Amino acid sequence: MLSQSLIAFFEDSALADSIRENDILFPLIESIHVLAISLVIGSILAVDLRLLGLASVGRSVSRVTSGVLPLTWCAFVVAVGSGGLLFISNATKYLANGYFVAKMLLIAAAGINMLVFHALSTRDLPRWENAARPPLRARLAGGLSILLWVAVVACGRWIGFTMKVG
Ligand code: HEM
Questions:
Q1: Containing structural domain, residue 44
Q2: Which residue from 56, 87, 93, 117 lies 20 to 30 Å from 100 (Cα-Cα)?
Q3: Per-residue pLDDT tens for 157-166?
Q4: pTM for the full model?
Q5: Whose C-alpha lies nearest to ligand 1, atom 43?
Q6: Ligand 1, from 19, 31, 32, 33: best to mutate by most atoms within 8 Å of Cβ?
């Protein structure tokens, strides 16, 4: 995984030091993180509920995704940036935290689920994208995505409860 020297490089940096030592910076960055992830999760939910045939059924799947995904990607970049700043402030402890590691693996799994769905569905999307009830594999991809992101949020929240202090 991340080499010890790379972790030390980030954790001992002046930036990590100021986030760790300053009373305002960590909560401010975590607030930005929470805002960004709310936009990521909220926008992904809009697409997943369409794939499940539970919302926006009057609009085609590609119309929903093209309207929402630019926001998702912008918010994701901010979530990763802010999360990375929080991470470097206590990298060694976060890497020893099971919820943090689980959250990173779940984010990767959510990414793979989305890539597999796109790889499998882009070919015949025009055939079914206006259907109120999409085919099973689209509903499975949407349902799995929701489960994975809920698990990411739960793990994210539990990091703070389980971090070893001092
Ligand atoms: C879009 C993907 C992400 C989601 C949905 C997410 C979700 C969360 C949630 C719900 C929290 C708890 C916030 C709170 O209630 O205080 C959190 C905290 C945190 N996240 Fe993320 N996160 C994401 C990406 C990342 C990434 C990429 C990193 C690191 C590289 C990261 C690092 C952290 C850290 C270090 C905390 C602070 C834990 C603490 O000490 O309280 N997150 N995240």
A1: 4-162
A2: 117
A3: 999 899 866 5
A4: 0.91
A5: 156
A6: 33
